[in-house]
């Protein structure tokens, strides 16, 4: 489970890492040595064809892309799937690694990043791995638009008031909702009243289904 989720996580990050790494290599390779020579008080040969503002500017841009790539790698190492799972097991001593593995193996894989098991939901894009299905109160979706780019999220509202989100494909949302609708204690759908109660009167929301149907 951990190995598979970790591999999926790195694969999903491969494209932005390659882009940032490639841009850093291009800009620093072309302008970095000249900028370094100038900082040491020498006139770089590249200054004959490029202005110093271009040399410094593109060097800084290269460092910016390099910093992003390094940040992504460090974050993935310090917020790894294995760490999240170990933290969960440490906080839930009655749960074993084998139970998680068995539930993951029998789970329904939807899209690229979501596995819904009988007892847990596994997703490397969420802030916690795994998420207990028994603590899910409300499932709904959100759409975020930045200019022409639209990203859809599945949102799991938990009994403690927190929300776990993961990016999903639009065409997978109906299927995801159908799977969670099988659980008698979970409210499913973009009902504005449910979302309002979740944020402002969670006790009233819990009385609708969760408290009467929670196994």
Kindly describe this structure.
- With 215 residues, the protein is an alpha+beta fold.
- The chain is built from eight helices and eight strands.
- The protein has helices at residues 2-39, 52-78, 81-91, 97-105, 173-180, 192-200, 202-208, 210-213, and strands at 108-110, 114-116, 120-122, 131-132, 136-146, 149-158, 163-168, 187-188.
- A four-stranded antiparallel β-sheet has the order 1-2-3-4, sandwiched between helices. A four-stranded mixed β-sheet has the order 7-6-5-8, with helices on both faces.
- β2 (114-116) and β3 (120-122) form a beta hairpin.
- α6 packs across α7 (202-208).
- The longest helix has 38 residues, at 2-39.
- The mean pLDDT is 93.
In one word, what is the shape?
elongated
Question: Ranges with pLDDT <50 over ≥5 residues?
Answer: none
**Main beta sheet:** 4 strands, antiparallel
Helix content: 40-55%
Oligomer: single chain
Strand content: 15-25%
Strand arrangement, major sheet: 1-2-3-4
Total helices: the number is 8
Average pLDDT rating: 93
**End-to-end Cα distance:** 26 Å
Class from secondary-structure proportions: alpha+beta
Task: Find the count of extended strands (DSSP E, 2+ residues).
Answer: 8
N-to-C SSE series? HHHHEEEEEEEHEHHH
Question: What is the CA-atom radius of gyration, in angstroms?
Answer: 23 Å
